[in-house]
Design goal:
The chain is mainly α and 458 residues long. It contains 18 helices and no strands.
């Protein structure tokens, strides 16, 4: 089997040559652009539920699906444990010209996502009502939140599988295949949102059903693409070995993004509970503004994550000069793009908020909250570049610390202080204050690790 893997992968050597010697533009077009297209569609997907539910004119329907979002975020975080971890290990192994572990890595990631996803979905459905209460659902929209969560639970194993393999499929520098799988399911989800919510008037139940069907379709597309184009990544039962050399690197390199996502979910739940205490109109305004801010941060993250295989490959090949060149250009591009995107959103903030829901209070507060969500976009670009560097080069301990800064270690104390001092407005601006502190700490850790790499290569 190992010989088959090597032979199969010989057909993909063009991808490796681009990772090793291709121009930055080639890397952007081949890696970052497909990742950003996926991110754009994912942003539309995240906006879809809020947008279509918002057309019903009931802020509490939006509040119902908003309080459930941490459950989805945690699930996505678990998916990145296998996807980012497995994808990073594969990219580093390719840079080292060591392909023998590929089959074992993919088999372990496949089995892990299916088992964990099934258990997660079962527990979510079983404890939906108390979970909604913990997440901050009030009696006025508890029933809607519980109904949404019980239906959504069925998608759990499919979300994990498609999320994990979306990262693994692009680990060889060819991201178009992963893009196709993500696009198919997400676009179907958006179409079904419109049909179920506006056409069939299923409100939150329709949003949840569309999510389930969309993720099942994504998982099926991933499997078909594996069979047709990427059989080297196709899991085989005979390769399922829980060897330390496979399990430990996958889990440790996946932990930074997983911890970040899960802690971010916990922090989001805490923030929602604090915000809803000031009134559901504030929570709805923050939800809409947060979606608009998400457009910028997700695009920056997608660009950086798209280029991560190139950083990992050149790190594995000890080509540090090229690795740093890629990182510097990535930082410059994301900083500029983040600034321009933030300016565009700010100038159109009133129209963008009103597009979601025609509610005077939500529009009034939403405009202020938009500013709070986008004002540190340039800082986030630098922060994400630091995190990508640490993650891609296998510095798991530093990467974990950095990933937790803006999601909890710094954010939660800042959130508590800002809420006490300024109420709902303090909650809205707490992430901006957090990001400024976090990028300083992340920059220090990045410099320490960079010095170690430079001294080891001298």
């Amino acid at each position: 089997m190992r010989e088959d893997v090597t032979t199969e992968y010989g057909a993909e050597s063009k991808n490796e040559r681009i990772l090793e010697t291709g121009s930055y533009l080639q890397l952007v077009l081949r890696l970052a652009l497909p990742a950003m297209i996926v991110i754009i569609v994912m942003v539309l997907y995240n906006l879809a539920d809020t947008f279509f539910i918002g057309q019903m004119g009931d802020p509490e329907k939006i509040a119902a699906i908003s309080v459930c979002m941490p459950v989805f975020t945690v699930l996505s975080g678990i998916g990145t444990l296998f996807g980012i971890g497995g994808g990073t290990v594969v990219s580093i192994a390719l840079g080292e010209k060591n392909r023998q572990q590929i089959g074992e890595i993919t088999a372990f990631c496949c089995m892990g996502t299916l088992l964990v996803g099934t258990v997660y979905g079962f527990l979510t459905g079983l404890f939906a009502e108390p979970l909604c209460r913990i997440l901050g659902a009030e009696e006025s929209f508890l029933a809607d939140a519980e109904r949404y969560l019980k239906i959504f639970a069925f998608s759990s194993p499919f979300v994990l599988f498609s999320t994990a393999y979306g990262s693994i499929l692009r680990s060889d520098g060819e991201a178009a295949t992963a893009m196709l799988a993500n696009l198919g399911g997400t676009l179907l989800n958006i179409v079904l949102d419109a049909l179920f919510i506006l056409g069939l008037h299923m409100d939150v139940a329709g949003a949840a059903a569309a999510t389930v069907i969309g993720n099942v379709f994504s998982a099926v597309l991933v499997l078909l693409l594996l069979l047709k184009k990427k059989q080297v990544f196709l899991p085989h039962r005979q390769n399922l070995h829980f060897r330390r050399e496979v399990v430990v690197p996958v889990l440790t390199l996946g932990l930074p993004m997983t911890f970040s996502t899960i802690l971010g979910s916990v922090s989001n739940a805490v923030q929602n509970r604090m915000m809803v205490a000031h009134g559901s109109v504030f929570l709805t305004a923050q939800s809409v503004a947060g979606k608009l801010g998400l457009i910028i941060t997700m695009l920056i993250m997608g660009f950086c994550m798209g280029l991560q295989p190139a950083v990992s490959y050149n790190f594995g090949g000890k080509n540090y000069k090229r690795m740093y060149e890629i990182l510097w250009k990535t930082a410059a591009f994301t900083l500029t793009a983040g600034t321009l995107l933030a300016l565009c959103v700010y100038l159109n903030r009133a129209r963008l908020v009103a597009a979601f829901i025609q509610d005077e209070g939500v529009i009034r507060y939403g405009q202020i909250f938009v500013l709070a969500n986008i004002c540190v976009a340039p800082v986030y670009a630098v922060y994400q570049t630091f995190q990508t560097f640490l993650q891609a080069t296998g510095k798991a301990d530093y990467a974990i610390i950095v990933s937790l800064l803006d999601k909890g270690l710094v954010f939660l104390p800042v959130l508590a202080v800002m809420n006490g001092l300024y109420g709902a407005y303090g909650i809205a601006f707490s992430h901006a204050a957090t990001m400024i502190l976090s990028v300083i700490i992340a920059g220090g850790l990045t410099m320490l690790w960079s010095r170690t790499l430079r001294s080891s290569s001298a």
